[in-house]
Amino acid sequence: MVLLSMMASTLVVWAGAPPGRYTTSNGTVTDTKTKLIWQQGTAPSTMTWANAKSYCAGIGSTLGSTGWRLPTIKELQTLVDVSVSSRPPIDPIYFPNTPQTNFWSSTPSTADTSAVWVLTFFDGNEGQAPRSGAGQVRCVR
Q1: Were 43 and a residue from 24, 85, 104, 137 both cysteine, which residue would form a disulfide, CB within 3.0 to 4.6 Å?
Q2: CA 81 to CA 91: how far, in whole Å?
């Protein structure tokens, strides 16, 4: 799916995922390729890594079902759409209003035990951040 928009006399094109890649239901997005079920929105604010883990563990009361958790860095990478040059590099149809900031993963740093891997939806790159810092959350199951 492609959405077209005119912004300040510039044509902006948002390319969606290939047809059938994602389906949505009650605030969740199912990735038919990876079989992962994602929280469609994000947490209302940034939080520490420990709070992000707790947030995901408790989100079942809102989204239904159990087993919600922080994704691994490899799982987060599956959301990056490298075919788009716009920001954020994620399908805007299925994941609207994604902040262009660091998203927590559950993958620990092997070089620094106080850090974990994060993925930024500014450019789709990953890096490491201290667990005590602030990051955004999108839970998975």
Answers
A1: 137
A2: 7
Q: How far apart are CA 113 and CA 92, in angstroms?
A: 34
CA distance 100 to 123: 8
Q: Each residue of 16-56: pLDDT tens digit?
A: 556 678 999 999 999 999 999 999 999 999 999 999 999 99
DSSP bridge pairs for 25: 28
Q: What pTM does this model have?
A: 0.84
What is the overall mean pLDDT for the chain?
87
3-state secondary structure of 53: helix
Tally of residues, the chain: 141
pLDDT of residue 53: 97
Contact 99, 121 (CB under 8 A): yes
- Indicate the SS3 state at residue 72: coil
Q: Residue 91 carries which side chain, given as an amino acid letter?
A: D
Q: What are phi and psi of 108, to 5 degrees?
A: -75, 155
